[in-house]
């Protein structure tokens, strides 16, 4: 498969990096990644103003040594994957620095932990960088450990709304499954009963049954358009009783899910708002890694990305 050949992993160097490094290794197996760049931003206070180049170089070397120590301790990825280290000096335009680093390293996946404080360990670098980057983002909750180091044993869940973005996520999951002989994956669709159901002259449960049948029909139409390459997709169709992200969380627990893959960047404004809302809630609450997948914009320049911040 052609996805995630170049990864970038933001390290905080404050005890929150173990899970990210572990999952970087797992992704390297899943995607046969060619390169992983572990990055850290040095805060302004760590390098005295007007210091000589040798002093800055010394701090950079010490930082790289700390990163190497962590990676050697926790990384268990594909031996063929090349490991590199990058130290970025914090500036007033640190978001631009990160976007530039992603572009320079041609990263198509960035791996982050908690929703803020990435790279520096401080609450100053917003995760909106990952949303504006051209590639995808893997969010890894703190303290989470891979249930298995064997890719063929992982359980993957794809929430679907029958959109183009959901189809992209499903295709990616199928590619993962084929590459590593994962026999089956899960898909989840959550349908809702509209508030005005009574205007149709039906009781709530009766209308809910109609909505469920419609969802099943749309799911079949959706899945028929995708080349599953022999992978069995187990459909889960549920009525919305709480909030979407809570329904996803319950499904994760019930089915022992190891990884959620969700499509990103809707073509329509309404789709973007819904996706951003669900994804944001998942980022804050998920107990398993969440891969927000988007096709890399072939024509998006660094300037275009900055204009969308």
Intertermini distance: 31 Å
CATH class membership of the largest domain: Alpha Beta
CATH topology-level name of the largest domain: Rossmann fold
Low-confidence stretches: 119-127, 266-275, 298-309
Main beta sheet strand tally, sense and closure? 10 strands, mixed
What Rg do the Cα atoms give?
A: 21 Å
CATH superfamily of the largest domain: HUPs
Along the chain, the helix and strand elements come as EHEHEHEHEEHEHEHEHEH
> Oligomeric status of the shown chains?
single chain
**Percent range for helical residues?**
40-55%
Q: Count the strands?
A: 10
> For the largest beta sheet, what order do the strands appear in spatially?
3-2-1-4-5-10-9-6-7-8
For the record, the CATH architecture of the largest domain stands as: 3-Layer(aba) Sandwich
How many helical elements?
Answer: 9
What shape does the CA trace take? elongated
Number of individual domains: 2
Percentage of residues in strands: 15-25%
Note down, in words, how this protein is organized.
The protein is of the alpha/beta class and 309 residues long. It has nine helices and ten strands. It has helices at 18-31, 53-74, 94-104, 128-132, 164-179, 204-224, 244-255, 269-285, 302-307; strands spanning 6-10, 35-42, 82-89, 109-112, 136-139, 156-159, 184-191, 232-239, 259-263, 290-293. A ten-stranded mixed β-sheet has the order 3-2-1-4-5-10-9-6-7-8, sandwiched between helices. Strand 4 (109-112), helix 4 (128-132) and strand 5 form a beta-alpha-beta unit. The longest helix has 22 residues, at 53-74. It is elongated and about 80 Å long. The model is unreliable at 119-127, 266-275 and 298-309 (pLDDT under 50).
